[in-house]
Every structure is written in structure tokens, then in C-alpha cells.
Amino acid sequence: MTQSPRKSSPVRKSLSASFIARVGLMAALALIFSYVEAIIPYNPGIPGIKLGIANVVTVIALYKFGAKDAAAVSVIRVVLAGLLFNGLFGMLYSLAGAVLSLAGMILLKKTGLFSVTGVSMAAGVLHNLGQLLVAAALIEDLRIFFYFPVLMFSGIAAGILVGIISMLMLRALR
Questions:
Q1: Residue of higher predicted confidence among 51 and 76
Q2: Helix, strand, or coil (residue 1)
């Protein structure tokens, strides 16, 4: 009796060896950037402000490989960085920011109206908004949104930096 060839499941099709290797490599690089950012003393005097250099990898993943790769890299980095450096609450804040910023990046990129830096700037602002939404839910006080203008400014500044680095890296990778 001959055996019919195994049908590949939808999971097998979406998790090809090249996808796993590519995402694993990018997630590892993003995690290294997260670690470097965690050990470098950077305190502008305002809580919650970071440069977000690890997001360069997410932006590159989005523009070079697509939304699925960028989402996988982002979630893997946030979870591992949370477990290794930030703790569970840090992971919760980061995950909210990452999901909101990634959704914004995907939508803005699809329009074709924004540069890499413009998309990255919006992502920086959305990341901070996501973190504020978690903080407001945890402390049950909407007055925390008075802090948003400060975080918006820092998100724009970090987004410009991440966007410029990402743009230069994407040019080098062509």
C-alpha cells in the first residue's frame, strides 16, 4: 500500500525554516540592542523615556520583509527583554507600546504617504501612548494623560533617530 504524501499544515507553511532563521536572527539583534540600552546610563530626568534603538530592527524587518516578520521580531524581543531585564510590569508596558506602534507603522507604511522616518516618528508617539494607556488602566487615573505632551515630544525625537538609522541601514541592505 502506498502512502500519500503528507499534507503540510497552515502552521508549517507559515513557519518556514527561512522565516524562523530570519526572525530569530533579527530578534537576537533587537534583544542585544535592548540589553545595551538597558546597561547604558541614560536618564533625561523624565521617567519612561528611552531611545528605543532596538526598534531599528523592527522597522527594518517591516520594510525589508513585511508585517509578519516585524510583528514576530517585536513580540519576541519584548517578551525576552521583559523576562531578562524589565520584569513583568515592564513587559506589560512594552507590549502595549509595541502592539500599538507596530499597528500604526503597518497602516502608515501601507498608505505610501510617509517616509521611513515619518513612520518611525508616529511609532514612537504611539508606543508612548500605549504605555500611558496601560498606566492609566493600572492606576485607574486618567490624569496621567497630562504627561502625554512630554512623552509625545520624546517619542518624536526617538522616532526621528530610529527612523534615520533605519533608513540608512535599509539603503545599505539594498
A1: 76
A2: coil
Q: What is the DSSP string of 41-75?
A: ----SSTT----TTHHHHHHHHHHH-HHHHHHHHH
| H/E segment holding residue 17 | helix 17-39
Is pTM beyond 0.90 here? no
Tell me the per-residue pLDDT of 90-123, one tens digit each, with 9 for 90 and over.
Answer: 899 999 999 999 999 999 999 999 999 999 999 9
Domains and CATH numbers, the chain: 16-173 (1.10.1760.20)
Length of the chain: 174
pLDDT at residue 3, as a whole number:
56
Residue with cell 507590549: 95
Q: Measuring CA to CA, which residue among 28, 48, 74, 39 is closest to residue 152?
A: 48
Task: Provide CB contacts within 8 A for 83, sequence distance 6+.
Answer: 91
Q: Is 172 exposed, middle or buried (0-12, 13-18, 19+ CB in 10 A)?
A: exposed
Is residue 106 within 8 Å of residue 67, measured between CB atoms? yes
